[in-house]
Amino acid sequence: MQVVFLISAITSIVAVMLICFFLFSNGIPAIKEIGFADFIFGKEWSPNDAPPLFGIFPMIIGSLYITAGAILIGVPIGILTAVFMAKVCPPVIYKFLKPAVNLLAGIPSVVYGFFGMVVLVPFIRENFDGNGSSILTASILLGLMILPTIIGISEEAIRSVPDTYYEGSMALGASHERSVFRVILPAAKSGILAAIVLGIGRAIGETMAVIMVAGNQARIPEGIFDGVRTLTANIVIEMGYASGLHREALIATGVVLFVFILLINFTFSVMNRRKV
Amino acid sequence: MKTMFKRKKTMDMLVSVLVWCSALITFSALIFLVVYILVNGIPYLKLSLFELEYTSNNVSVVPAIVSTIIMTALSLFIAVPLGIFTAIYLVEYASKSNRLVGIIRITAETLSGIPSIVYGLFGLLFFVIFLGWGFSLVAGSCTLAIMILPLIIRTTEEALKSVPDAFREGSFGLGAGRLRTIFRIILPSAIPGVLAGVILSIGRIVGETAALIYTAGTVAEIPTNVMSSGRTLAVHMYTLSSEGLHVNEAYATAVVLLIIVVGINTLSSVVAKRFTRG
Predict the structure, then answer these.
(1) For tag attachment on chain B, is the N or C end more exposed, with fewer CB atoms within 10 Å?
(2) Best of B36, B85, B117 to mutate (most A CBs within 10 Å, chain A)
(3) What is the ipTM of this complex?
(4) Which domain range does residue B228 map to?
């Protein structure tokens, strides 16, 4: 029976190896054929031209802009909400807030995307430039979507700071706010950083919600009211009809995304190790 | 001295206003989202939406619900035993210095960080094309099974670890073997924790779209067997809203999804509460 347990345990290793093998073996030949520099830094994505151009630089930029926007919006609000939940709000309210955060985490990304499509896009279109599907719209929506990740982990980090820190600071005459922000938050720094890194991972990997609100034009945007296409969106939108080198180029897009995520995971685990 | 004190006081005020505002933004956004979808969707929860047969007129959600249930059951059927056995190996068998344990942990961590579209790509390349399964429920559920595996491993591991060692010692002391101890003593007392993980996984399966479009396909009929293609509720909702022809029905589908999510969350917190109470 121990063998059965061992074999089960090895499945996850096999799975990671299979994923790496199938992605890389299908994607890397395409990158070679297109040329690494032309693929990564090529500014033109026009798979139907003759000759076709497969430059994913606009998508890399798109993913980075939207992720940065989501972090700018989601991180401050998330951390402050975590402070609210851990140190400010009375237990009576907390009983409602905790399930609310869980609900925020549980709502499927299509529902977020749909909400963005019917509420945020028209709002941005009517009040700002452009047609509504833009970097700004996607950043706001993703900022909302990464909130539960940021709140959950930051709250845990804040709660794990020993009470004596707070008491010591209060005893030295610091106010409640000052004790929280100058003593507790710095002590919880590594946990909060981990929350941000996980949030980045979620934002860069999000697909469906982004497709529904970002406009998906494969070009380098000129402002935050321009539409962009992310790496993830590129795959979903064109995979349905792509063939030949086009299809392989999409898989190669997946490889680039995968490498990004591996880097983020690596950073995360290094940070976790340092905490221990 | 006095001005400094005053400045500090205004800082404090400002900071706590910011904290309150952030919390307000977070929770009012959630309430707005939920209420907006309920208000726009509930009027369209008509009987025609729940007809057995899917037509492009009634855009019935019943086939999607059936596909979702089959998909969930299949994925759990694959992932739950694998996940539980892995956790048993990690907690009960492997020694702390075992190199394999470290590698398994790292791979599980890696799996949990991979975005769903990458799983979708892999499922397409491996299950659909390489193994020749085509767009099918099996291909979709195998993909999802790998996706939820790390979640089940982690929750089960934690549940197993929280079983006091005295249970193990007692069981060994009474002459039970290792296997008997695991299946008769340890697993039963860890079940609420395992269940909480399973319920969370159900939530992920129900909400998943990107990993399914190119593995299970988007056929809107009730699937006849596990090799046929079928769209889950979330995929159904995506196709409805991207076609843009049935926005009202998309609202209604969103309501159904929300209800399921709330149900799953309530269930998992009830189970978790029982767990902590012991």
Answers:
(1) N
(2) B117
(3) 0.90
(4) 47-277
